[in-house]
Amino acid sequence: MNELAPPPDNGVPVHEHPVDHRSVQTSTQSKGKAGRIILAFLVIALLAGALGYGFWKHYTLHAEVMATAEARRDFVPSVRSASVRASDPFRIASWPGTTEAFEQANIYARASGYISKRNVDIGSRVRAGDLLVEITAPEIEHQIAQAEGTLTQVRANLEQAKANRDLAQVTWDRDRKLVQQGWTTQQQGDTDRLTLQSREAAVGVATANIVAQEAQLRVLNQQRVYQRVVAPFDGVITQRNIDVGSLVQADAASGTFLFALAHADVIRIQLYVPQDDAIGVVPGTQAVVRVPEIPGRDFSGSVARIADALQPGTRTLLTEIDVPNPDRALSPGMYCRVELKIPRKTPSLIVPSEAIIFNRNGLSVAVVENDTARIRNVTVVRDFGTSVEVSEGVAAGDKVILNPQVDLADGRKVTIRPDSPKPDQTKKS
């Protein structure tokens, strides 16, 4: 009853020997080590592949860059160009100006009195010698009459002095012989001789009085002439300050201002020309005057006078221009614009503004020589907007590149792009 029963048979093999746990553990460790080695090889392979791929991409990019650089180096750009042309032999300079009468004068009274007659007014055109006004001064006539009476008196005094001189001369001629012969005293002879000298001096005084009186009479007659005020030259009355009945005074400092007279058949214009333009201005330089209120008409003139010396403060040259004005279309005092056609003293060249290169080296242009770009420095004299005037660096006929590339270098090969045909030419072709 107490005997052990055999284990049931459940299909599991029964080991006859006991299991070795050490061998099982060693086998497991070997398998783990092999897995790590395989993983390391895989990581190394991935790194090597990534590194190789990176080198390959870098080489490919470098090759592309080198190919692009070589292509860029060998590339010949097509450029637009324009020719440099010489400037005109004359330079046009324009300044504002004011017209002035060629001759103008303020006419003052030279005789005191009242205006009895006035023949002109503002705007009257007169010729030299025309009567403007008459001044009435009765006292002048009285003074003239008095001076003429005095002149008659001094002339009579002269005749009397001559008679006394002649009598003294006869007396002395007679008594001189008597004194020599002793019939008359020496004192009597001296008296007769000195009396003759006194009479001769009296004649001289009377003669001088006549001269002085005649001069005084001429002054009075001139005063009477001044009562008739006449025009000194041809012109037009631009101002009148008196009328009939006005009292005028003759005085060099405070005389009455009667009229202003201007001669406008020739207009005079004064300009102060800056130093850079004054070098070529000489008498005879052609000028054109334009007035905004007279559109479409040019008034031709020429430089008549220059100061030959610049103003130290402004460095300008005083220049006078005479403009014929036979029809009197121009009036003194008008605003105008004056253009001078100044001959050039030094040659200059015109370059399109599109060709100017501005960088740290200054201003330059690219000139095409034998299909090669040459960079030349230029000196700009004047800027006209679409073109500039230069004084050196290029020559007339040079081909300059328009809108050159930023990296355009000296010596680079270029080809000039042909000009595109105009629309009408395209239609004809």
From TrEMBL:
Q: Please give the InterPro entries that the UniProt record associates with this protein.
A: Beta-barrel_RND_2 (IPR058792), MdtA-like_BSH (IPR058625), MdtA-like_HH (IPR058624), RND_pump_MFP (IPR006143), YknX-like_C (IPR058637)
Q: Where in this chain does the record put each CusB-like beta-barrel domain?
A: 269-341
Which source organism?
Bradyrhizobium erythrophlei
Please tell me one Gene Ontology term that the record gives under cellular component: efflux pump complex
Molecular-function annotations in GO: efflux transmembrane transporter activity
Q: Where is the composition biased (Pro residues)?
A: 1-10
- Pfam families tied to this protein: Beta-barrel_RND_2 (PF25954), BSH_RND (PF25917), HH_MFP_RND (PF25876), YknX_C (PF25989)
Family named by the database record: Belongs to the membrane fusion protein (MFP) (TC 8.A.1) family.
Name used for this protein in its record: RND family efflux transporter, MFP subunit
Query: Keywords assigned by UniProt?
Result: Coiled coil, Membrane, Transmembrane, Transmembrane helix
List the PANTHER family: MULTIDRUG RESISTANCE PROTEIN MDTA (PTHR30469), RAGD PROTEIN (PTHR30469:SF37)
